[in-house]
Amino acid sequence: MTETPNLSGRIALVTGASRGIGYQIAKQMAAAGAHVIAVARTVGGLEDLDDEIKAAGGQATLVPLDLTDMGGIDRLGGAINERWGKLDILVANAGVLGVIAPIGHVEAKVFEKVMAVNVTSTWRMIRSVDPLLRKSDAGRAILLSSGVAHSARAFWAPYAASKAAVEVLGRSWADETRNMPLRVNCVNPGATRTAMRAQAMPGENPDTLPTPAEIAAKILPLASPTLRETGMLFEAREERFVTYRDPE
Ligand code: NAP
Asked: Among this protein's residues, is 159 annotated catalytic?
């Protein structure tokens, strides 16, 4: 079992914080001492999170935002700069599955939505907060990926392609910042008991899967100021880093 890092006084931005894995990461980071900036569209989910964080003595700022609003992502970076002048932790967790279907049956609007939410908004968020993470003494970025980025499973093409793209964004960013305190890593949470998993596998018994709280606890150490790894993939279930193949 991993130790919960001390995130006292750290500013953490978590996208997709209204439910599922992002909700639990936000809640656990606040419990570990971080001030959480919680982003999602569903205000009710954000308010539930806020209630839980406050009841436990923590602090959060709620940001109801559709991440396909790219200008909104830019403005969020500006607002964080004005209030705190830096960012310590980014968790780019928000994502959509799209549809499980043969590649030729995927509607254009579904494909474009998957790319907009999973890829373009992640890049836009990176661009917005990169200068703020560089101002932190120990900036940490955690990008949520998936095992299908590597298995390229039949019928999962849009989602799998989007997660492969997310990993390359993360690795490129890690390489650019290798000699700085900033550490950038991707995570495969593995099958987790959430709404997205139920959409993908409607026949599955969710009780057989780990809870988002269990998976979030395994992801939290990637935000630790003492973390050394960068540009790696973290397999959350097994709590181990995977090194990408070195370039030729
Ligand atoms: P989830 O329960 O469906 O939650 C997704 C989150 O993303 C929600 O908070 C949702 O908030 C947010 N989101 C979606 N579209 C958005 C938009 N346009 N703007 C702002 N926020 C948006 O999913 P999850 O299972 O917790 O997944 C979390 C991450 O883990 C995702 O990146 C997913 O791909 C990855 N993952 C999950 C599994 C799994 O088995 N669950 C496996 C591998 C990888 P709103 O709807 O309120 O906006």
From this structure: yes
